[in-house]
Design goal:
The chain has helices at residues 25-35, 54-61, 79-82, 97-105, 111-117, 131-135, 137-148, 174-185, 219-230, 258-268, 312-317, 335-346, 356-359, 383-402, and strands spanning 2-4, 12-17, 39-44, 89-95, 123-127, 152-153, 157-160, 166-170, 194-199, 204-205, 211-212, 234-239, 251-254, 274-277, 284-286, 306-308, 324-331, 350-355, 364-371, 374-382. The chain is α/β, with parallel strands linked by helices. It has two domains: 2-184, Rossmann fold, CATH 3.40.50.1950; 188-402, Rossmann fold (3-Layer(aba) Sandwich). A nine-stranded mixed sheet has the order 1-20-19-18-17-14-9-12-13, with helices on both faces. β17 (324-331), α12 and β18 form a beta-alpha-beta unit. α4 crosses α7 (137-148).
């Protein structure tokens, strides 16, 4: 039986920009939030418009940008009320020292400051300023007061600043902010749950410089880790070699070979409530890898003796007190049939199948979820959006099984 999977309603936030050079990061932030399934309504101060144009943010967000308290496009003339009533949060990024001070003292002299005062939804602020401004006692008092008022402060970070100095006050990067906002908005369906996950490829050495690996990028696994953290899970991520930023909040264990991944899983699995095997683990390894580089000659051929690696997912599923087990199946043909056979042989609670040719290394994916009740297909979308839907489904199945 194949069931249609209803598309969840996309969260809506109001993104406020104030007048700082970090406003350029807002363009990427809007795009990254869209990839996570989060829609942005942008409001800008007059100073913000000196750094980046409303037209840029309108094109990226797909929604009109507001800058004026008296904008005639709002029929009742109450933009400071209407713009926030359907939003899950207001995010100010960048938030200058001046805007932070205004917020602390309840000043409302433009559209953005007025809607922050008239809001009913949570407020998140991403500070961005010169290091001396950040370190000033007045700013530090204001940050303390913001947090006491229940406002979430995201960052700042330390690093190079536009003024040429180095220090605290730099706004978080767009990827970090998008991740933090997504985590804040996500339902905490996995609160208190310990989740163990494998991701990325493995590398099986042939000699000192060569090895057997695969084309897995780790993008799906890392997206799932971030979605699980956003859902409140404690995530341990055992990762093969990838070129990805570690998910904020995850305990990451870096490995190279399948044997190393298996050893890490053995050590961590006892405390796991859910195990998700996303890694593309090599089925075979070289029986006798050479300590030094094998030299090439014009006449020699090279034969490699391969031996099987342990099936990590199968081993976990066979444990007496096993976690809820989720597998992935990247197949090049007969995707549904091969994946369902894998699920039955390994006695998995759920398997997620996709076509290898269009999934590996890509930023988007189309997957089919298969369990004892049938199958559901999630239409092609960004892996970040797919990950959120998968974690929602896994949480539902895991909690139902526990009852």
């Amino acid at each position: 039986m194949t069931n249609s999977h209803p598309q969840p309603k996309r969260p809506q936030i109001l993104l406020g920009l104030t007048g700082g050079i970090a406003a350029y990061k807002a363009a990427e932030l809007v795009r990254r939030l869209a990839d996570l399934g989060i829609d942005c309504q942008v409001v800008m101060t007059a100073a913000a418009c000196e750094f980046i144009t409303p037209a840029t943010l309108q094109a990226l967000s797909g929604q009109p940008v507001y800058t004026d308290l008296w904008d005639p496009r709002i029929n009742n003339g109450m933009a400071h009320i209407d713009l926030t009533r359907d939003k899950q949060a207001i995010v100010i990024a960048p938030a200058t020292a001046n805007f932070i001070a205004k917020t602390v003292h309840g000043l409302a002299d433009d559209l953005l400051s007025t809607l922050c005062l008239a809001r009913e939804c949570p407020l998140l602020i991403a500070p961005a300023m010169n290091r001396q401004m950040w370190e000033h006692p007045a700013t530090q008092r204001n940050i303390t007061q913001l947090e006491a008022d229940g406002i979430t402060v995201l960052g700042p970070a330390s690093g190079d600043q536009a003024c040429g100095e180095v220090g605290m006050g730099r706004m978080l990067e767009a990827a970090e902010l998008a991740e933090a906002i997504n985590a804040y908005l996500a339902p905490k369906t996995l609160a208190g749950v310990s989740l163990l996950m494998t991701a990325g490829p493995t590398f099986e050495p042939i000699d000192a410089v060569r090895g057997i690996t695969n084309r897995s990028s780790g993008k799906m696994g890392y997206a799932l880790a971030r979605a699980a953290i956003a859902a409140g899970a404690r995530v341990t991520l055992i990762s093969g070699p990838v070129s990805l930023m570690a998910p904020v909040g995850a305990h990451v264990i870096a490995i190279e070979t399948a044997d190393q991944m298996f050893a890490a899983v053995q050590q961590e699995v006892a405390g796991a409530d859910i195990f998700i095997s996303v890694a593309a683990v090599a089925d075979y390894r070289v029986s006798e890898p050479q300590a030094h580089k094998i030299k090439k000659t014009d006449t020699d051929t090279l034969s490699l003796s391969l031996v099987p690696n342990v099936d990590i997912l199968k081993w976990v599923a066979e444990q007496v007190e096993r976690p809820f087990c989720v597998g992935f199946a990247a197949e090049s043909q007969h995707v549904h049939a091969y994946a369902d056979d894998k699920r039955r042989r390994k006695q998995l609670d759920l398997i997620i199948a996709n076509l290898a040719q269009t999934a590996i290394g890509a930023d988007d994916n189309e997957v089919t979820l298969i369990d004892d009740t049938g199958s559901q297909t999630l239409p092609r979308a960004a892996k970040t959006a797919i990950a959120s839907q998968l974690i929602s489904h896994i949480a539902e199945r895991y909690l139902r099984q526990k009852r």
